[in-house]
Amino acid sequence: MINRFGFEILHQDAGTKARRGVLHTAHGDIPTPVFMPVGTAGAVKAVPVHTLESLDCRIILANTYHLFLRPGHERIEKLGGLHRFMSWSGAILTDSGGFQVFSHRQLCRISEEGVQFRSHIDGSSNFISPEKAVDIQNSLGSDIAMAFDECTPYPCGYADAESSMELSMRWARRCRERWKIKDDGSRALFGIVQGGVYSDLRRRSAEALAGMGFPGTAIGGLSVGEPRDLMDEIIESTVPLLPRDRPRYLMGVGTPEDLLRSVAMGVDMFDCVLPTRNARNGCLFTSRGRILIKNAAYAEDPEPPDPDCTCPTCRRFSRAYLRHLFLAGEHLSAFYNTVHNLTFYLDMMRKIRDAIELDKLGNYLDSMKKEDY
Predict the structure, then answer these.
(1) What is the pTM of this model?
(2) Given a cut of 90, is residue 371 above it in pLDDT?
(3) Lower Cβ count inside 10 Å, N or C end of the chain?
């Protein structure tokens, strides 16, 4: 019997637009709102899968573009798919690679058919079309795949943003048609709203995607340099346009405060490299704000990074020791710091879900505003 993909809303917060829900996947149920650690190349940097499991991480993100280039989706498929390849029993969402095309724009040429690009690894010439992006993700076997899109840069004039959005919508329709060929209901393909910072373009994009019948919708093209107030304005105006009974995913965002504000606007799913990247750079998120562990103030500090945290790092190690590891360039520094930051994010999402259940998300939002993230 096939385990079908699905989404349920369990509770609506009384004071905000936040929803408490659950994603049903073939690799387990995932409570929402949820934060997905980024495992771009099939690995969350510095953290083994058994550690992620011990932190009760239910879903991670991997990237189509990177896995296509190395080791290759066909090789992964021969080895049993991405879950087996990386020995991960939880769910996987694969980004389509549109943002990576945006990141390496100087290496690519975009046309109606797709994107011709040179590999940032070895300079080889490659091509990804909307159909190819779906085929790659089918080979990987991710639980949630993403439509191929063009990420609109910031700043971007209205005419260029409109042209880019319309191209993404044509690509989305092609992705949807390709997906239907092998769709058995066990996995899901999400559409992505584009349109830059123009609310009318976002509306047109959301309406177009709704007409295509995607089982989930993402908001893309944000956190690419626009001011925070403008990002919030776009999120707040876009979320009500998305189907209420389906998951809403905000791509690539963000700080703890960003996540909390977006949850209050009705977003269900998030991913961001911030907790893992910052950890490798010695920046730790704590219940009392961020700390830079390399600072001299921690050279003889016997306290854990966060006295209120129960992660393996905080239970055992001092700020002084973690500072020493970072300055010495020890690989363990990245591991211990990342375990802490991921614990902070995952615990924060658990607290958010509990607050929604108790109709107290507004109180939690007020408390988080006092910290510097």
Answers:
(1) 0.97
(2) no
(3) N
